[in-house]
Design brief:
- The structure holds two protein chains of two kinds.
- By secondary structure, chain A is an all-alpha fold.
- Chain A has helices at about 1-30, 35-45, 50-75, 85-120, 125-130, 135-175, 180-190, 190-215, 230-259.
- Chain B has a domain at about 100-160.
- Chain B has helices at about 45-55, 75-85, 100-115, 120-130, 145-160, 175-195, 230-235, 240-250, 255-260; strands at about 5-20, 20-30, 35-40, 60-65, 70, 85-90, 165-170, 195-200, 215-220, 220-225.
- The longest helix of chain B has 18 residues, at about 175-195.
- Classes of the chains: A mainly alpha, B alpha/beta.
- The interface of A and B includes residues 123 and 132 of A.
Chain lengths: ~260, ~260
């Protein structure tokens, strides 16, 4: 029994150590020359540009439901005029970064984990190493930089879409005056709220790409067996779950620190 | 056999275990420069593990892997990459980058490791693809090619930097006889032209012997032999004898056969 617990602890410690060294190596390679722009642009296109539609869509609906729920809650206290402020603060501080990060996990994180996992399984990563091409520099760094650049931008797009969605429901459907919707928003939102959202989105971007790439890269070392199509699917699932949990846990921690 | 004394690769008492299973126990092997060394052996005996040690993808638990006198286990990442600049590798399943077209696959080492312009890269890639009798495949993706063509693209990629040592991991596995012969012919031609040292891991006995200067058998984690194909086939070593008998039939093992003809 004790031996089993020890084995478990050692396994997780080893995994954590591996992931830590992986992150360090990626970040170190990111600041080391040579710098190649075109792979980074390609990855920003994949992680960022191709997520814009889903982010616009979910952002709008999140803003709409926030306005709907917020309106009926605020009306009980006779403060419907504060709707703009409630929608904007909830989006900027919490929902914008968290939901857009969860969307990016589902859309790009899973794809990146599967891509790297398949490359590992089909010896493509070994082939890179044998060609004296550093897989960290060649494969990981463009993805890391792209995620760190794209995530705050996507979050900002989500926030704007949400505010517009809130306007559609609150002002156009429920009759909150347009002036007070924006006036209250302008009055209550301060830079610290925007900053909190940006810090969160940066951290989430890093977490998503770290977990997705590391899980794929170390697929062959998975205890459950990372071989074949099933191994890739299992590892991708676990990367998505782990990323989602990490986003929610770190969301709490960042809020607690910054508030 | 080509006469040469320079040692390209030397394995000294290499040991390696995975968990409780010891795959390599005191493996010793010398690969001389300019020669072709073929490593044969039954499946699951550590051929690929041995190859991965030579490539620096695995590190031995004990022992040394020397490439031109440098111990791979003691090298840092950048020094290891320097050693690997002399390498070309043809993987068992070719390991082409499946999201890149054929041209980009072959061009990748040139783009990442040289300062060549696109024109020079195009010339080099097209020269190597032509050498492999591959025309009109530049824009295709690996999934659109047959197994034999993939191997030829893999060989073009392995040779594009004019390496000093080329490793072949089961170069003809999964190919029919004529496709295998094609790969052997290309190997023979390119080696004659580029003069590289070759290390081939293969099952294809006895055909592979025709290409070999040296043959080594790995069985039970130990390397036996490293001798000329003729010596290998006539060896008295019980492991080699049983391998030869198993793969080539009793023909070569009979006393009469050994004393007359061979």
């Amino acid at each position: 029994m004790l031996e089993k617990i020890g084995d478990e602890v050692l396994y997780y410690l080893e995994q954590a150590g591996r992931m830590g060294i992986f992150l360090f190596t990626c970040l170190l390679n990111a600041v080391r020359p040579p710098y190649k722009i075109s792979p980074i642009v390609r990855q920003i296109h994949f992680i960022g540009h191709r997520s814009v539609f889903v982010i616009l869509f979910t952002g709008t609906f999140t803003g709409m439901v926030l306005a709907l729920q917020g309106y009926y809650t605020l009306r009980r206290f006779g403060s419907e005029a504060l709707l703009g402020s409630a929608v904007a603060l909830a989006l900027l501080r919490e929902l914008g970064p968290v939901i857009s990060a969860l969307m990016v996990v589902g859309r790009a994180g899973s794809a990146i984990c599967a891509e790297i996992g398949i490359m590992r399984n089909s010896e493509q990563i070994d082939a890179l190493e044998c060609m004296a091409i550093d897989p960290y520099k060649y494969l990981m760094v463009p993805k890391f930089i792209a995620a760190i650049v794209a995530m705050p931008l996507l979050t900002s797009i989500f926030d704007v879409a949400g505010i517009v969605g809130g306007y559609l429901v609150g002002v156009s459907m429920l009759g909150v005056p347009a002036g007070s919707y924006f006036q209250e928003m302008y009055r209550s939102v301060v830079w610290a709220d925007v900053e909190m959202g940006l810090v969160k989105s940066l951290v989430f971007g890093l977490l998503i790409i770290w977990i997705a790439t590391a899980k794929g890269f170390f697929l062959h070392l998975e205890r459950s067996g990372g071989f074949g199509a099933e191994g890739v699917s299992r590892t991708t699932t676990s990367a998505v779950v782990l990323s989602s949990v990490a986003i929610l846990v770190s969301d709490y921690l960042i809020s607690a620190i910054l508030l | 056999m080509k006469e040469t004394n320079n040692i390209a690769i030397e394995l000294i008492d290499v040991e390696r275990s995975f968990g409780t299973q010891q795959v390599l126990r005191k493996v010793n092997l010398v690969v001389e420069e300019g020669t072709t060394t073929v490593i044969v052996g039954p499946s699951g005996q550590g051929k690929s593990v041995m190859l991965k040690h030579m490539l620096g993808l695995l590190r031995p638990d004990r022992g040394q892997v020397l490439v031109y006198g440098q111990d791979l286990a003691r090298l840092g990442k950048s020094q290891l990459n320097e050693v690997r600049k002399d390498y070309g590798v043809l993987f068992q399943n070719a390991a082409l980058f499946d999201s890149m077209n054929i041209f980009d696959n072959v061009a990748l080492p040139l783009r990442e490791r040289t300062e060549f312009g696109e024109d020079e890269i195009r010339d080099c890639v097209e020269e190597k693809l032509a050498l492999m009798d591959l025309d009109g495949v530049n824009e295709k993706y690996p999934a659109q090619l047959s197994g034999g063509m993939k191997k030829r693209v893999g060989l073009a990629r392995a040779l594009v930097m004019n390496p000093r040592i080329v490793f072949f991991d089961e170069p003809t596995t999964g190919l029919d006889v004529s496709r295998s012969n094609e790969i052997y012919r290309l190997f023979y031609q390119t080696q004659a032209r580029l003069k590289y040292t070759a290390v081939i891991v293969s099952h294809d006995v006895p055909k592979i012997f025709k290409l070999a200067d040296r043959v080594a058998l790995i069985a039970n984690g130990v390397v036996e032999g490293s001798m000329t194909p003729e010596e290998f086939q006539l060896s008295e070593d019980p492991n080699i004898r049983s391998f030869v008998r198993e793969t080539m039939g009793p023909l070569y093992c009979s006393k009469e056969e050994e004393t007359c003809g061979l």
